[in-house]
């Protein structure tokens, strides 16, 4: 496996260092593996939550099972203000703790024994942050459905799961499995991740729904949905056998949803072709109607697109192709492979989630409407690229990079596909990626090294230019008699990405520019016929 060149590492460290000037200790506590996080590894969460719609409050507790990696006794648990701790217990005894903002530092009963497994219980209550503009500015949603009944949901990517339940709120550590027990008023339904294991009525007239997730899950994917839901059941014959499909929608939308969600099987067929088997067969695939636009909650994808094609009825590509399919079903389901199956250890590398998932839209368009439509879609979304700041964020401070991780990131992947120049190999790379990193957390370097290994090429400088810089590679060229002269103008030293151009009447051919001028024979009769393959996301400039 090829390593990342030192320049790539230095630039990433420099990005973090320069951005650190604007960050606080609270950001470090949230975004890094602190000493009080490093010594223990989450094995299981057993979350119990009581929902009170009348005053928008919750109470509950989380039993954390953890493995001890090294000897220590101070444990960091995250629970955001204004949520309050009632008590923390271990082995039947209350533990002492101190609070520093959103971080709770717990003193365990004694130093933990390496190799053993322990449990700790955190009991809490409060009024969680209300979402202002979900899912982007997330939190709890206390809404009403069309018939005036309570409709409650969560969306907390970025904000963090610790906004409503206590956990180790860092993407690098996922539980192996999880139980979510939700207690709610009567005549309502609670939907969460995984499968519904049981439902029971309580003496106080409340009802408890117990959901179990049998696979690793990242914290922000854990979802609570409460409302007047009905379930629509179906089955998909997939690569790994029968996949249970469940669509939980408002009771008055059952007929509409039954028809509209027929596209799910088409989507799954396409994505299993390109990415490999759906990663969570044991937990089923679900769409859950939500009062916000949508979110990639694992095995319980939040759906709020109001049964429209496109993105709230709009085409983000401006080509017309984006209105032929439901954006939320396609995009958010794509995250089951990229984001949920493969999760970045640090949100600075969220491009792993969003770039590949954004490109899944192009691949779905290709599956359904062919390569020409896919080309028009991927080039159409370029108008949304801002080139405002780098795609990679600052590490260890809970900082995402530019929103260009969506459209620019997808075009980076499309450009790499052109360089690979073999769609069969490119498909094998995407499928192999989901096998190699199955249910794992990874770094950006892991992905770059993987592409290098699988292709036998060196994509270090390609990833470096698109991810760490705001400028797009510019191919400068000019004609000198029968010679085409060319070079790259980029930020990255020794940038050497191949690109396809027309040199004669036989179509596109590869040239291999570097930072210095090079030349090759050009035999087309009219220089105006010279073209650069528009599948490559680059700029051109004739000198």
Keywords:
31% strand; single chain; Neutral Protease, domain 2; 28 strands; 543 residues; 3 domains; alpha+beta
Describe this structure in words.
There is one protein chain. The protein is an alpha+beta fold and 543 residues long. Helices cover 24% and strands 31% of the residues. The chain has helices at 6-19, 25-31, 35-38, 254-260, 263-275, 327-334, 351-369, 371-380, 407-420, 423-436, 444-455, 460-468, and strands at 40-52, 57-68, 74-78, 84-90, 93-94, 96-100, 103-107, 117-126, 139-144, 150-155, 177-184, 189-191, 195-201, 207-213, 225-227, 229-238, 241-250, 285-289, 294-295, 301-303, 342-344, 440-442, 474-480, 483-489, 499-504, 507-511, 518-521, 539-542. The longest helix has 19 residues, at 351-369. The model is unreliable at 1-8 and 16-20 (pLDDT under 50).
């Amino acid at each position: 496996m090829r390593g990342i060149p030192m320049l790539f590492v230095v630039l990433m460290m420099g990005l973090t260092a320069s951005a650190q000037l604007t960050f606080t200790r609270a950001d470090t506590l949230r975004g890094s593996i602190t000493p009080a996080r490093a010594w223990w590894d989450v094995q299981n969460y057993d979350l119990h939550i009581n929902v009170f719609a009348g005053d928008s409050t919750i109470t509950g507790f989380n039993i954390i099972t953890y493995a001890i990696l090294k000897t220590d006794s101070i444990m960091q648990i995250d629970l955001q203000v204004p949520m309050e701790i009632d008590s923390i217990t271990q082995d039947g005894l209350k533990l002492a703790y101190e609070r520093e903002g959103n971080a709770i530092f717990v003193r365990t009963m004694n130093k933990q024994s390496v190799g053993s497994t322990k449990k700790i219980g955190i009991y809490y209550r409060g009024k969680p942050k209300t979402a202002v503009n979900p899912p982007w500015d997330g939190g709890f949603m206390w809404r009403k459905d069309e018939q005036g009944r309570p409709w409650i949901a969560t969306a907390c990517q970025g904000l963090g799961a610790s906004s409503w339940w206590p956990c180790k709120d860092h993407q690098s550590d996922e539980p192996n499995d999880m139980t979510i027990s939700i207690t709610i008023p009567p005549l309502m339904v609670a939907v969460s991740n995984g499968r519904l294991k049981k439902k029971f009525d309580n003496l106080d007239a409340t009802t408890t729904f117990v959901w179990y997730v049998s696979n690793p899950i990242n914290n922000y994917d854990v979802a609570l949905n409460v409302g007047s839901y009905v379930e629509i059941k179906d089955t998909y014959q997939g690569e790994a056998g029968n996949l249970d499909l469940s669509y939980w929608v408002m009771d008055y939308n059952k007929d509409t949803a039954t028809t509209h969600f027929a596209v799910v099987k088409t989507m799954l067929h396409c994505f299993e072709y390109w990415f490999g088997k759906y990663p969570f067969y044991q937990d089923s695939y679900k769409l859950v109607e939500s009062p916000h636009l949508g979110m990639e909650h694992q095995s319980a994808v939040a759906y709020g697109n109001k049964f429209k094609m496109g993105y709230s009825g709009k085409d983000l590509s401006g080509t017309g192709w984006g209105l032929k399919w439901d954006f939320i079903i396609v995009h958010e389901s794509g995250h089951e492979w990229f984001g949920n199956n493969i999760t970045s250890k640090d949100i600075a590398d969220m491009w792993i989630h969003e770039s590949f998932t954004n490109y899944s839209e192009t691949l779905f368009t290709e599956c359904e409407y062919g390569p020409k439509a896919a080309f028009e879609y991927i080039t159409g979304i370029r108008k949304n690229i801002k080139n405002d700041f780098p795609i990679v964020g600052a590490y260890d401070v809970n900082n995402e990079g530019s929103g260009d991780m969506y459209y620019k990131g997808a075009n980076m992947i499309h450009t790499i596909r052109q360089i690979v120049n073999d769609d069969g190999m490119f498909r094998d790379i995407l499928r192999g990626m989901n096998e190699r990193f199955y249910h794992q957390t990874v770094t950006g370097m892991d992905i770059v090294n993987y592409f290098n290994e699988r292709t036998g090429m060196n994509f270090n400088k390609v990833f470096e230019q698109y991810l760490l810089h705001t400028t797009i590679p510019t191919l400068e060229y000019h004609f000198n008699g029968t010679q085409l002269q060319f070079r790259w103008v980029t930020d990255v030293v020794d940038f050497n990405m191949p690109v396809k151009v027309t040199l004669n009447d036989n179509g596109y051919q590869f040239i291999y520019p570097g930072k210095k001028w090079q030349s090759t024979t050009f035999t087309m009769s009219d220089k105006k016929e010279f073209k650069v393959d528009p599948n490559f996301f680059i700029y051109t400039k004739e000198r």
